[in-house]
Specification:
Blueprint lengths: L1 E4 L7 H17 L3 E4 L6 H9 L2 E4 L10 E4 L6 H9 L3 E4 L3 H15 L3 E5 L5 H8 L6 E3 L2 H5 L8 E6 L5 H14 L2 E5 L4 H16 L2 E5 L5 H12 L3 E5 L15 E6 L5 H23 L9 H9 L8 E9 L3 E5 L6 E4 L20 E8 L8 E3 H18 L3 E10 L2 E5 L3 E5 L18 E10 L4 E5 L1 H18 L5 E10 L2 E7 L2 E6 L20 E10 L4 E5 L7 H8 L5 E10 L2 E7 L2 E6 L20 E10 L4 E5 L32 H14 L1
Parallel strand pairs: 1-12, 2-3, 2-4, 4-5, 6-7, 6-8, 8-9, 10-11, 10-12, 15-17, 25-27, 30-32
Antiparallel strand pairs: 13-14, 13-16, 14-15, 16-17, 18-19, 18-21, 19-20, 21-22, 23-24, 23-26, 24-25, 26-27, 28-29, 28-31, 29-30, 31-32
Helix pairs in contact: 4-5, 8-9
The protein binds iron/sulfur cluster.
Amino acid sequence: MRITLAENAGYCPGVGKAVNLALETAANSGQNVFSLGPIIHNPQVIEFLGSRGVGVVNDLAELPAGSTLLVRSHGLPPEKLARARAMGLNVVDATCNFVRRAQKYAKQLHQDGYQVYIIGDQGHPEVIAIKAHTENNAVVIRGPDDIDKLELTTRQKIGVIAQTTQRWENVQDCINKLLRKVGELRIYPTICPASTRRQSETMKLATENQVILVVGGKNSANTSNLATISRAAGARTYHIEGPGEINPDWFRGVSAIGITAGASTPRWIIEGVLSRMEEIKEQQTENLDQPEASAPENMAEVAMEMTGPKLERGALINATVVKVEPDRVLVDVGYKTEGIIDVKDLTRFQIDDPNEVVAVGDEFNVVVIKTENEEGHPILSKKRADADLAWEEIQKAQSADGIITATVKEEVKGGLLVDLGVRGFVPASQASSQYVEDLSQFIGQTLKFKILEVDERRKNVVLSHKEVEIAEQEAAKQEVFASIKEGDVISGIVKRLTSFGAFVEIKPGVEGLLHVSEIAWERVNHPSDVLKEGEEIKVKILGIDQEKGRISLGRKQVLPDPWVTLQKEIKEGDVVTGTVTRLVDFGAFIRLAPGIEGLAHISELAYQHVDTPQDVLKSGEEVKVKVLNIDPEAKRISLSVKQAAPEPKKKESAPKKQAASVPTEPTTEGYTIGDMVGDIFGDALKK
Ligand code: SF4
């Protein structure tokens, strides 16, 4: 039996974003978050979200001021959004960008004088919100049949918008019909790419398989559309909400099964369906392989009784690995011949080599699938035994602290698969408390997980590594808070650099903030000018806010204070060399040593009058300065550039020009005749 899962089965980007935003908002605010109507049309997800603090209300009036309203990916009518804000609700908008685009086009068409037609479901929240953007003037049609009921004339200007999850064929049929009836038709094919991809994949799957399982809420428009497409393509189609609804009889005599899922179906439900289908596949294979009830005259059975424990089909027995071959593993089960575990019966995960899972000498339980093959070897399954034990372990862990350890096996769309003996699913948002760009980095790691959801019947196990990390960080934080006090000097690792400072890890998962102004005594433009990520540094604890979980750190405080050093090396009246760092209207800042800058007032830059400091100095220039005053407490130094050099001799003043009056004792000493005459003329001219 071949089972094929559609590549794009499950959450679309818009739904994924809304669900993650809802969970994050509830977790970060510590308050309940509400959506007006269910965030997505899937009852299991709604139940799960409810358990994480994301509730559903049917009317804004149910929400008290100050609570948080999450706008679903379907969007909201503008007047409802305005009302929510006027009520003082904290609005978190998760409207999908493709829905926003449809709203924008509808509004534009309406403003441009077109009668807007929306192809979609009248009561669907997305359609209601789009219609509201046309002042509720748009007409909603389900399909071409509705167009026959409309009174249309060739003089009309018609604009068409489609609900984002519509079937393309339906939209096309509507457009063809409208084209024959109206004068002007403007069409915005607003079906979103995620829906288009899912629909064409379903169509292909339906033509290549005999039976199709469409997984998703029965009230989900896009999932129902997939079921319609699959049936239209001729495949026997079952629309199910989860693995519990699967009936093994559907697959009797069937060799190819396709599975697809709507945009609102979470990966853990799809995983549950896959696990259930694998079980059914195994059972059907066994039934084909194994004749019913062993015949008493079966000599092998008789021999078994004579040579060791009786093997019964379905029994759980202990096995020890004696040999690992490329496609099978031989084990000792205390029987006359070695048992065989086929590579496909070793694990639920895809492996290239049995050595990835077992080694010679390993002991574990196996389930007897067949008491003997043609060569007299029992055929066994480790995978089945693991699954049986896994459910017990999961139940035990759940009733203890809810924490279980497992190895990450695969990255799948929307998250990670881990090996619990059964498949466990970790949604991408639950993989880590930090942003993770590439989930594949977890593959092969054995980690602790918090069990979020277990449903043996539905074959669902949903896990979170993020919650374990957060709990560990919280515990480490409390431990750190109890062990440090302001003024302590400790070591830490620079984890992240931002424009405003560096985050320094004090203990695994506990970080403090080293503000940019506290990195060094000298001015630091960006933390990366001084620090490197991964570097170990000494820091002083400047402040602890246990309530907000914040620790502020200082690095310059553990470095030698340049003001102390300075006082030993420089005194008032000394002439030293410095570098001009900044020129401002009132003077120049001059760096004397790392972390020590003094100010030379504009009046101290030169003996002559200076209009602006730039007239006499350049930034970066080295200058000699005289230290006029040092104030270590205020950390101020006054400098003088002009006093560092001897005062230039005053130029002898030019001889005074003769006044207009004639000296009482006429003399030419110090004057030229021209001076005198000129002055006389000048004076005469002034009159
Ligand atoms: S189906 Fe398309 S339009 Fe709707 S939420 Fe998903 S991505 Fe957005």
